[in-house]
Amino acid sequence: LKNSIKLFIAGSSGRSRLAIENLERLTRKRPDQEWDIEVIDIVGNPGAAVQYRIMATPCLIRNEPPGHTRLIGDLSDEDSLSLFLDAGPVRAPLQFKKGAPA
Amino acid sequence: MNETLKLEPVSKIPTGIEGFDHLTLGGLPQGRTTLLVGSSGSGKSLLSVEFLFRGATVFGRNGVFVTFEESPNDIVRNVKRLGWNLDQLEAQGKLAFVDASPEPVAVMEVGRYDLEGLFVQIKEAIRKVDAKILVMDSIGSLFSQFSDIATIRREIFRITHMLREAGVTALMTAERLAEYGQISRHGIEEFVSDNVVILRNVLEQERVRRTIQVLKVRGDSHMKGEFPFTISSSGISILPLSAMELTQESSNRRVGTGNQTLDEMTGGGIFQDSILLISGPTGGGKTLMSTMFTAEGCRMGERVLLLAYEESKEQLLRNAQSWGVNYQELVDQGQLKIICQYPETMGLEEHLLKIRRLIEEFKPGRLVMDSISAMERVSNLRSFREFVIGLTSFVKQQRCCALLTSTTPQLSGGESVTEAHISTITDVIMLLRYVEINCQLRRGIAVIKMRGSQHEKEIREFTIDRAGLSIGRPFKNVQNIILGIPSSSGPDESDQLGEMFGSSPSGKDLP
Description:
The complex is a heterodimer of chains A (about 100) and B (about 500). Chain A is α+β, with helices and mostly antiparallel strands and about 100 residues long. Chain A has helices spanning about 15-30, 45-50, 80-85; strands spanning about 1-10, 35-40, 60-65, 70.
């Protein structure tokens, strides 16, 4: 199972670089998982900004599973970024038994 | 060489919104961002959509709609009923949406950010349709989507700067909490805009009164104050009313009133572009005079628009028939248009708009309004005054001869609110009054004002019979008037009349 993540940045600003660094550092700390990170510069690819409705940059979204959380900012808060990264793909769907309370 | 030497004043581009370009003396400042503020439901979104729609369809200016609240689908659907097919414009490449409406996703702010995404999307949309105009509706929503106020302020400023560089004329809307007070929530006007327009939506005497005010246009002039506007099936219509210029050409052509004696009293009829006010008590002959005026117009081959606010069409037809005027025939021939409506059916602004539309469509030579005082019932004084000014100035511009009737509250003498507001802007005033002489009720008519012409100053007696209105000889008691003894030798006819007409006869002022 892969963690597929997109990071939208705007040009090579300090903020963009900081976000990339922070993301790379924290994913390196999780070598047991496979990371597929795509960095998209919306200045060169405005269509992507329209498609993914990017308002603020940097912006981090999860493709798989489609997440309902977006992170915006330079990702400098390690706790928040870890929380996002660790909410990864669910390995096995949770099983509920019919009519049987635990 | 000094850079500032080459600068030229800001030019304006027309919006095509009815009355707006008149109010702003030309439209929106080109290449600038104008802030449009108003409380919830004041018509901000509609005005901005209309700006884009008219821009694309009338002036060939492509536009971008940046929506921060509603989804593009909702916006397209909202104005469908007005016949504005935004989706078609979008398909033709004349309009582009930037959907910045909130998504049902959680956004966590982790560190510092900017709105480069929005910036890029706007730039891309402008490039795509080669936009000349742009709307952001409503910018205040950014402040609830993001928490870093300083960043948002800086980014909004950056966007407006980019628009200016790109030469895009923009309208940015923002919420305000109260109709009077702080210009906009979050103080957007402080850092963004040189130009501010305010929409208001005030409940006055159980009626909603919509107004628009141009607060400032940097470096240029505009109409000051609040102007009423309406929202109808054709969008926003601002009624500039008192802003109308008194530059109408005057006409020397006279038209008949339908009564020969009355034409003589007015020195040969009233001027073609004048406004005639007939004031009288109920049953005093006003409707008869309107009927004569209408019939005379039709006889002379003019079209006549008859607006009745007190009687039904059937009543009107029957009454006219009793004086030998066949309204139905005239209607069938297309010479006469009768609109009967209770004043209560809509607000005065809508009435005015409707009348203007009717005049533009039907192009009447004469307009009859029976009675204008009925309109008092449905409005407050200010609205009524604006209505009268708006109506009369428009009628004059259209070179239409108008007859307005006004019902006085008392049977004899007195004046109504209508007259207080209308008398100064009418060109001709005729009074119809009951005159009590020797226990007999008789009728008097007098022309008390006639702009640009001599008129008879006497008070004449008139009678109403099957043949219509016959004006007889003046009421006169020559001896008593010359002697100036009003009461010692018994009541004087003209003195009584003076009281009836609410003015003192010349003799009374003498010691």
